[in-house]
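WP5 quarterly update. Target: T-cell leukemia translocation-altered gene protein homolog. Source organism: Xenopus laevis. Length: 102 aa.
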Amino acid sequence: MAETWVSEIMTQALGCLQAFSSEFALEWESSDMKAAIFKLLLGWIVLSLTAILLAWKSYGPTVNSIYYRQGMGGQNGGTPEYPARFPVWESSSTESLKRHQE
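Structure tokens (predicted):
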């Protein structure tokens, strides 16, 4: 029963895709200006994604090392994964707490 439901959805989706592509092809053939704009925008997207990819390959490790430090500090230089001691409210020691001095 589930297979027929999925089959119907896939058939409808493929029908919609075919209708869209045939309509797109008709528009493409009838309007040179739309085709030129589409090619221009598609080229711009491809060029931008290529530039981003090349920049990431070049500068990615540097950016990654700035934001994800390895070592004692944990991620982003914050608290380590395992705290050295329990927080003050769970501490059983009687050490004095540091207070703000004015």
